[in-house]
Amino acid sequence: MRIYADNAATTKMSEAAIEAMTDCMRNWWGNPSSLYTIGQKAKEKLEEARAEIAAVINASPREIIFTSGGSESDNQALLTAALNGKKNGKTHIISSVFEHHAILHTLNKLEKNGFEITLLPVYENGIVRLDELEAAIREDTCLVTIMTANNEIGTVQPIAEIGEICKARGVVFHTDAVQAVGHLPLDVKAQNIDMLSASAHKFHGPKGTGFLYVRKGIIPQNLIEGGAQERGKRAGTENLPGILAMTAALKDAVANMEKNNAHMTKIRDYLIKSLSEIPHSALNGDARQRLAGNVNFSFEGIEGEGILLLLDQMGISASSGSACTSGALDPSHVLLAIGRVHDVAHGSLRLSIGEDITVEEADYIVESVKKVVERLRSFSPVWRDLTEGKKEFILK
């Protein structure tokens, strides 16, 4: 049995996406910037896709810029708000401590270039507090950037309320919605979102393709120079096969969102209940205000890498956190942000299930995780010290 439970890292391309991509490669392979018929047919397909993507989030087609994925979209969004703000004497940016590194590293870069950064805490439940956000906004605040759903612990932020606060205070609001697009209902107008980042491979589209929504009235700042593509705001020949595949995948995901979320929520809650039976373990993040497919646990006395290797041998693909930092030795900054100490944060497991998971597979995951935790603890010196009373348990 092979169970894939790392959908937060990437998803398998849907048949609809594969069909759209291959059809494009066979029939719509022209350069959309060319004036002759083959190019203009490709241009028509590109603009059809732009309109369909825009409709999903209640935007207008001209507000969509196609990119290579979430990291590029995040970078362009932050650069746009920062440079536009600086022109008006606004150099203060608000974010949270557990954003994706595409946000945090860009903020570090901006800080070195004279911007002041405020990172809001997220507390044990992994959710930003609205009163603290409102209190942090200043006259010189040019941007608030808060992710819709966390990529490690799956907690979902009160995006509409954040957008309402930002609109009332005249501050641009960007959200990294990479984990949310295709999985949660999003409406940029109703939620007062000014910019939004998305990546196709998180909702069964291809890797290397994404989009950035930029509200009309905000002038996008170029991250890539060189050509007139994307109305001069993102140079480079558009990846039409990827864009058409992304569009097909997103339409499919949205059409089945309610059904898929109901199924995954049922399995998610079963996994949470069952894994909570393991002594000295803890769910990371709010139990309810989280993505339907996300389960993240810490197990005291063991290392996350050991869990992953043994689960892989048992046919289960999982992770201990963000795929972008899987080679790092330091514990997850997300888990540290919600108050997990280093020793506990090291023993974490993220299960991000898909809509095709079965009850039988969930049972096998529970059985396997319990066996792996017990085995790892059996030869862990840290666990021995804990059980012998030489150290105190942190997770009760």
Molecular structure report:
This protein has 396 residues and is an alpha/beta fold. The protein folds into two domains: 15-255, Type I PLP-dependent aspartate aminotransferase-like (Major domain) (Aspartate Aminotransferase, domain 2, 3-Layer(aba) Sandwich); 257-387, Aspartate Aminotransferase, domain 1, CATH 3.90.1150.10. The chain is built from 13 helices and twelve strands. α6 links the parallel β5 and β6. The longest helix is centred in the N-terminal third of the chain and has 20 residues, at 37-56. The model has no long low-confidence stretch (mean pLDDT 96).
Residue windows where pLDDT falls under 50 for at least 5 positions: none
Count of domain modules: 2
β-sheet strand percentage: 5-15%
How many E-type strands? 12
Number of helices: 13
Q: Separation of termini?
A: 33 Å
